[in-house]
Amino acid sequence: QVQLVESGGGLVQAGGSLRLSCAASGHTFRSYTMGWFRQAPGKEREFVARIGFTTYYADSVKGRFTISRDNAKNTVYLQMNNLKPEDTAAYYCAADPSITGFTSSPDYWGQGTQVTVSS
Questions:
Q1: How far, in Å, CA of 69 to CA of 49, rounded?
Q2: Which residues contact 7 (CB under 8 A, 6 or more apart)?
Q3: Number of other residues whose CB lies within 10 A of the CB of residue 83
Q4: Which of 10, 13, 65, 71 has a CA that sits 20 to 30 A from residue 113's CA?
Q5: Is the Cβ–Cβ distance between 89 and 97 less than 8 Å?
Q6: Mapped to the 3 state alphabet, what secondary structure does the chain carry?
Q7: How far is CA 75 from CA 2, 12, 96, in A?
Q8: Beta bridge partners of 114
Q9: Which residues lie below 8 Å from residue 53, measured CB to CB, with a gap of 6+?
Q10: Which residues have C-beta within 8 Å of that of residue 108, sequence separation ≥ 6?
């Protein structure tokens, strides 16, 4: 059973930084595509970033967010810099055995961690 547990969310002022972590278990971590989505109140869930052999970002976070992974710790990170009020959302870690599957709809999801950016 794949389990994903996020941490690191919180309240930060605009221009500040946060680092989210996602601890994974129950699968061959290094072979999975991992990533982050977010959902703001009243909006649909949207893609933020993913990492497999390469990284890919949504245009809205490119240059501000950095995704990375530590295969020895089975953990993926999302470093978020220069945060804006529009980044306020619940952030979800996701995983899939393939990049194709991740792009369409990841098989596995965490419970989410809230990020709130005040203006």
A1: 12
A2: 20, 21, 22, 23, 113
A3: 22
A4: 71
A5: no
A6: CCEEEEECCEEEECCCCEEEEEEEECCCHHHCEEEEEEECCCCCCEEEEEECCCEEECCCCCCCEEEEEECCCCEEEEEECCCCHHHCEEEEEEEECCHHHHHHCCCEECCCEEEEEEC
A7: 13, 23, 14
A8: 90
A9: none
A10: 2, 4, 27, 94, 95, 96
Q: What are the pLDDT digits (tens) for 97-115?
A: 999 889 889 999 999 999 9
d(CA 99, CA 106): 9
CA distances from 105 to 12, 77, 101, 109 (A): 30, 20, 6, 10
Report the percent of the chain where pLDDT is more than 90: 88
**Which band of pLDDT confidence, cut at 50, 70 and 90, is reported for residue 91?**
very high
pLDDT digit string, tens, across residues 49-82: 999 989 999 999 999 999 999 999 999 999 999 9
User: What is the rounded CA–CA span in Å between residue 80 and residue 116?
Assistant: 12
Please count the other Cβ atoms lying within 10 Å of the Cβ belonging to residue 8. 16
Distance CA 23, CA 15 (A): 26
